[in-house]
Amino acid sequence: MKDSFLGKRIRGGGYAIKGAWLLLKHEPSIQVQFVLAVSVCIAGWYFEITTAEWIYQFIAIGLVMCTEGMNTAMEAMADFVHPDFHNKIGHIKDIAAGAVFIAAVIATIIAGFIYFPYIF
Ligand SMILES: Nc1ncnc2c1ncn2[C@@H]1O[C@H](COP(=O)(O)OP(=O)(O)OP(=O)(O)O)[C@@H](O)[C@H]1O
User: Fold this and answer.
1) Which sequence spans correspond to the domains of the chain?
2) Is 68 one of the catalytic residues?
3) Where in the cell is it found (predicted)?
4) What kind of fold does domain 28-119 have according to CATH?
5) For residue 10, how many other CB atoms are within 10 A of its CB?
6) Is it the case that residue 106 has pLDDT exceeding 80?
7) 98 lines ligand 1 (CB under 6 A)
8) What is the ipTM of this complex?
């Protein structure tokens, strides 16, 4: 079982869950986004948004949190391979942060489309 196809997949899932837990436990940016995600879920429950709107909302939450997780991994990798200041490292980190920014802008637009009609 240990080295079987299924055993490896189960072990891989365990590592992934551990990674998600580490992100939530140690990364302030992910913690902020998690609080925001819970807040919009409460808003969704309060305004009784439709099933389609829940789906768009979860896609937006997933987009932002996954991008932030990858950005965190990229920063950790950059700091590991080159702990000192280097323009190239700065460029790589800026690009990774830019991806999070794009995801956050898209998520904000989606939230606007969902909640604007309920609030105004
Ligand atoms: N080693 C480095 N060499 C050059 N520029 C760097 C370096 N480390 C960070 N920077 C610059 O500082 C910015 C912030 O980097 P940093 O690693 O502190 O990320 P952060 O956004 O503060 O994330 P976190 O708060 O999660 O650490 C980068 O986008 C980059 O422009």
Assistant:
1) 28-119
2) yes
3) Cell membrane
4) Helix Hairpins (1.10.287)
5) 12
6) yes
7) no
8) 0.88
